[in-house]
Specification:
The complex is a heterotrimer. Chain A has helices spanning about 1-25, 25-55, 60-75, 80-110, 115-145, 165-185, 190-210, 210-215, 230-235, 235-245, 250, 255-300, 300-310, 315-320, 325-350, 360-375, 380-405, 415-425, 430-445. Chain A is mainly α. Chain A folds into two domains: about 1-80 and about 155-445, no CATH class; about 80-155. In chain A, α2 (about 25-55) runs parallel beside α12, α2 (about 25-55) packs antiparallel against α15 (about 325-350) and α17 (about 380-405) packs across α19. Chain A starts with a helix and ends in a 13-residue tail after the last helix. Chain B is globular, with a radius of gyration of 21 Å. The relative contact order of chain B is 0.18. Chain B has helices at about 1-40, 45-65, 75-105, 110-130, 150-155, 165-190, 190-200, 200-205, 210-235, 240-260, 265-280, 285-290, 310-325; strands at about 145, 165. The chains are: A mainly alpha, B mainly alpha, C alpha/beta. Chains in contact: A-B, B-C. The interface between B and C is medium-sized, with 20 and 22 residues.
Chain lengths: ~450, ~325, ~240
């Protein structure tokens, strides 16, 4: 029970902090933070499954996030017919070529003994395959990218509701994780970390530069939303009435009708954006709760016990007949798939896909700070970590500004040091992340909410 | 004549840049490999530590420039590097004392130390950005070129020019001197050998009376020298931007692992392997073929294996392949 | 009073239970003493306690009458105590000669002569002096390990199962080398599984059971003691 009190206390503090932001800054900011916290929490849960349940390090978080984002684009954008007719054939040919190449290699691997000749011929096959694919694809890619490059210049997607992409994103990320896991999971822990980091760099490089598929750094904007648009809300009667009812106290102050109307308009504009954010919050909250229930169920199932056994003593688990490699692969796929969902959610919320903004190095490490700080192996801890760290990441600048003003209160307003520090306020978030991580690792190495050991 | 032109072309656009870039990577890779071999963790703060050393060097360069001190044709930064090294070493040793030592004494698993190094990475990023800011800084002065492309053309009468920047020559020379000194130290001196012994078998090294504190200190000192010089040379040759240094960590790791992590000589060669393959695979050979092939066979396209967008991806792919097929690196052999 | 002694040692690893209980072991210069006993009897632990690798709750360690109970392992090495661990007892990535040099790390004078002496003792090492130790055979590695430990010219040499995992022929050869070392007036203390062979070259022996001294005596006495024979020497 005491343990549960800890959880409740930690979450209450987090909620109070967000509410304080709402009261003192604005509800808009508070809700954006809350929504991003929810997305971070989903990512953290994915990483936590891999690290906390199985002890696998995945530094490829951003790669899977980007794939989730790509899914959102491919699902929701309407297909660009001209592009398909111009270059679709070539692209499809390439797809067949890639499939054929993979099948041939599989065939060779299965039917021939391992030898130098086999290795070299596979290498030769891959290289000639790549060259062939490049030649086949080039005219198609050029044709596609030439079609209205300012607006499309890519194949587009399937024109389905964007919400489907949350599932498709999971499949995309899971598929990549299957490939990565197949080849890299045998590596030592620190090598695995570096390998996953580099593979995610490669994935993002591809997403950034294959314009025919993703528009690359030209970005995809104006994605369809699962929530209403602010503009529509502002002209909807029931919404205006709702805002009016909600703020009747505030509005009564105005005696003049036109003043009152202006104030109401202002409130409606604000309210519409809050309302949209609330819609997202609701959707995200559903995802978080579903995932939480599933992961908790999994954690306390026989399967979860087996995973912990594998994590704590791989050799013993192996000796007891558990297929460690297979389980590792499974958990690697599951965790990555959850990160993929988060990636799709992120793009859904933003309504745009900006490949340039996926910076594997920075944000991957941020997610890892969340996992460690929250408490690895504990799902409630992971979610809390996502909340606490994202909150700090966003609010670090105001906090730092406050502290700087506090400590340099004695200096004159034009003192060079003070000005320089105030100018550097945005970078204090790195300092806080670093110090937070170091302090937690030193004094509370199991995180804010440590893993509970089941005693039965 | 065309053959000569073609060769100059390759020299100018592939060989010299790759050699320079490779040297810069090599210094960083030896840094990574030393920390890994002796302190036994993957240091994710590598790039940012290099940025810190470079930052101090830049600040001292500006200070000297403001005093009117210069080295004439050579960049003033060379004079500032020793100060950069000094501050870098102090920074590293205090980080070690307050952060890493605790985990080393408690014999924490390497993964935990790697996580801790991420904390150090964030802190170092903050320190660098708060002091010098996140934007591009140039601190090169002195004579920019040793050979200018135009002069070379006039001198030799060839179509292709060969340009040699002074920073390129300085980078290569400094690397050669530094690396030779380092290998002499590691292989010929008693302290160097004791570092090898410590990396090879820690317990037995302790039983032989080797002092671990001294080993750790010397490791950070060497690391500080390598990080600062490597970073400063990169900054002189290209430019200093904290985020670039952070990103450079990836090819540096790639070089260290390709060379066989824990093996400094492998790391040294690994730097060049990465640099040359990046540039070889992304260079457009059209002009080269125009020179050496008869007119009828001249290529239409750029004859580029991969677009330059995939420069980083090349080194990472090499790394992934090496990790999968030969995790101990392509230059197996002695440890450290 | 013996040259090197561990008196009434009691202790275990960390805060765990005691592994050795008022265990007493001593050895004189020019003497080989074996510590024997069943698995888990605390043989290696007793030896590690004398080297300072675990904290004693009570008891003391003395060398030549001087109490060294509070010295760190490194400082005990400086007192002339050398130790050859059971596993990982060489620098596998370094050459034979470098291994020997590392053994003499604490000496500041010229070590060429000492290396020559070691080569005289183990002629095979001279042949392989520039080879990586990791490439040598098991018996040769053990010789490197012995040679490394002898580089500081120790007065006490402690061996933890020096013949574990080597073939019987190599084992005999190693024992011959150990006897040669003893003739240089070195006190040798070793833990051995091959009890019969060990006792046959030992001057004295101790039998430990559950961390306590059970039997003690000269090598021959123990070999001929029916109780020892039946319980530890396989009849």
């Amino acid at each position: 029970m005491r343990k549960n009190l800890n959880v409740i206390a930690a979450y209450s503090i987090m909620m109070v902090l967000i509410i304080l932001v709402g009261v003192f800054q604005s509800w808009n900011i508070a809700l954006s933070i809350f929504n991003m916290c929810l997305i971070s929490a989903v990512m953290t849960m994915g990483a936590n499954i891999q690290w906390g349940y199985a002890g696998l390090i995945n530094f490829g978080i951003m790669g899977y996030t980007a794939l989730g984002g790509l899914a959102a684009v491919l699902i929701s954008v309407d297909p660009v017919q001209e592009a398909w007719s111009a270059g679709g054939f070539d692209i499809l040919m390439c797809l067949w070529l890639i499939i054929a190449l993979v099948l041939i290699i599989r065939f060779i691997l299965k039917n021939f003994q391992k030898s130098k000749v086999r290795t070299y011929s596979i290498a030769a096959l891959i290289i000639s395959g790549i060259i062939l694919i490049r030649f086949t694809a080039e005219p198609g890619i050029e044709a596609i990218e030439d079609i209205n490059p300012a607006k499309t210049g890519f194949l587009g997607g399937f024109g389905l509701p964007i919400i489907f992409s949350w599932i498709v994103g999971a499949f995309f990320a899971g598929g990549l994780a299957f490939i990565v896991g197949k080849v890299a999971l045998g590596l030592r822990a620190d090598y695995l970390a570096i390998a996953t980091l580099l593979i995610s760099e490669i994935v993002i490089a591809i997403i950034k530069h294959e314009d025919w598929l993703t528009r690359g750094v030209k970005n995809v904007i104006g994605l369809k939303r699962p929530a209403p648009y602010e503009v529509d809300l502002q002209s909807t009667d029931w919404f205006i009435n709702l805002v009016e009812k909600f703020n009747s106290g505030k509005l009564e102050v105005f005696s003049n009708l036109s003043d009152r109307q202006a104030a109401l308009n202002q409130l409606v504009i604000e309210g519409s954006s809050i309302f949209v954010k609330l819609c997202y919050s609701g959707l995200f909250l559903i995802v978080v709760i579903i995932l939480l229930i599933l992961t908790q169920k999994a954690l306390y199932s026989p399967w979860g016990r087996m995973m912990r056994a594998i994590r704590d003593n791989e050799e013993a688990a192996n000796a007891m007949g558990k297929n460690v490699v297979k389980q590792h692969l499974l958990i690697f796929i599951l965790g990555s798939a959850i990160v993929g969902i988060a990636g799709a959610m992120l793009v859904t919320q933003d309504g745009l896909f900006t490949p340039g903004s996926y910076r594997p190095m920075r944000y991957t490490f941020l997610i890892w700070v969340m996992v460690i700080v929250g408490g690895s192996g504990n799902n409630f801890g992971a979610i809390l970590g996502g909340f606490a760290v994202w909150f700090l990441w966003i609010e670090a600048a105001p906090i730092a500004l406050f502290l700087i003003n506090f400590f340099t209160a004695g200096m004159s307003e034009t003192h060079a040091l003070k000005l320089h520090l105030i100018e550097s306020v945005p970078y204090f978030r790195f300092l806080m992340m670093g110090l937070g991580l170091l302090l937690i690792m030193r004094y509370r190495p199991k995180g804010i909410l440590p893993e509970k050991i089941e005693i039965k | 004549m065309d053959i000569l032109n073609a060769l100059i072309l390759l020299l100018n656009y592939i060989f010299i840049p790759a050699l320079t870039y490779g040297s810069q990577l090599a210094l960083g890779a030896i840094f990574v490999t030393l920390i890994y071999g002796i302190l036994r963790f993957a240091n994710f703060a590598t790039g940012d530590m290099m940025a810190f050393g470079t930052m101090v060097t830049i600040l001292f360069t500006w200070y000297f420039q403001s005093l009117g001190i210069s080295l004439g044709v050579l960049p003033t930064a060379l004079l500032a590097i020793p100060f950069g090294i000094l501050f870098m070493i102090i920074y590293m040793l205090s980080i070690d004392k307050f952060v890493f030592k605790y985990y080393r004494v408690n014999k924490s698993p390497p993964v935990q130390l790697a996580m801790v190094s991420i904390g150090v990475m964030f802190v170092t990023q903050a320190v660098v950005r708060i002091i010098i800011g996140p934007s591009d800084q140039r601190f090169f002065d002195g004579e920019k070129f040793i050979i200018k492309a135009r002069e070379f053309k006039e001198m030799t009468g060839l179509n292709e020019g060969l340009a040699l920047k002074s920073t390129q020559l300085i980078t290569v020379l400094v690397t050669i001197v530094l690396v030779s000194l380092l290998f002499w130290f590691l292989n010929k001196t008693k302290t160097g050998k004791s570092m090898k012994a410590y990396s090879d078998n820690e317990d037995l090294a302790l039983l032989s009376g080797i002092d671990p504190k001294k080993i750790v200190m010397i490791t950070w000192i060497i690391a500080g020298i390598l990080a600062t010089i490597g970073g400063a040379l990169y900054g002189l040759d290209k430019s200093f931007k904290p985020f670039t240094y952070f990103n450079n960590m990836l090819p540096i790791f790639a070089a260290a692992i390709v060379g066989g992590i824990g093996n400094p000589f492998g790391a040294f060669l690994g730097g060049y392997v990465i640099a040359f393959s990046e540039i070889f695979l992304t260079y457009a050979y059209k002009k080269f073929f125009i020179y050496i092939l008869p007119e009828s066979m001249e290529p239409e396209s750029l004859v580029q294996l991969l677009s330059t967008d995939y420069k980083f991806a090349v080194s990472f792919s090499i790394l992934v392949i090496v990790l999968l097929y030969r995790p101990s690196g392509i230059f197996k052999g002695k440890v450290l | 009073m013996a040259y090197f002694e561990g008196i009434e040692m009691t202790g275990g690893y960390g805060n765990g239970p005691n592994i050795i209980n008022s265990c007493t072991v001593n050895v004189n210069r020019g003497e080989i003493v074996s510590i024997l006993g069943p698995n888990g009897a605390g043989k290696s632990t007793a030896m590690k306690a004398m080297l300072g690798l675990l904290n004693l709750k009570s008891g003391s360690i003395k060398i030549n009458g001087k109490d060294i109970s509070n010295l760190s392992p490194q400082d005990r090495v400086k007192e002339g105590i050398s130790f050859v661990p059971q596993n990982k007892n060489v620098f596998a990535g370094m050459t034979v000669e470098e291994n020997l040099e590392m053994g003499a790390f604490l000496l500041n004078n010229e070590i060429k002569d000492i290396i020559e002496e070691i080569y005289e003792l183990f002629p095979i090492l001279k042949e392989k002096q520039n080879q990586l130790v990791g490439e040598l055979s098991g018996g040769q590695r053990q010789q490197v390990a012995l040679g490394r430990a002898l580089m500081i010219k120790p007065t006490v040499l402690m061996l933890d199962e020096p013949t574990a995992g080597v073939s019987p022929i190599v084992m005999d050869e190693l024992f011959d080398h150990i006897v040669k070392v003893k003739r240089n007036d070195v006190a040798i203390l070793m833990v051995e599984q091959n009890a019969k062979q060990a006792l046959s070259i030992s001057d004295r022996g101790y039998v430990l059971v559950t961390g306590e001294n059970r039997y003690a005596g000269t090598g021959n006495e123990l070999l001929n003691d029916p109780r020892v024979r039946s319980s530890f020497l396989g009849g």
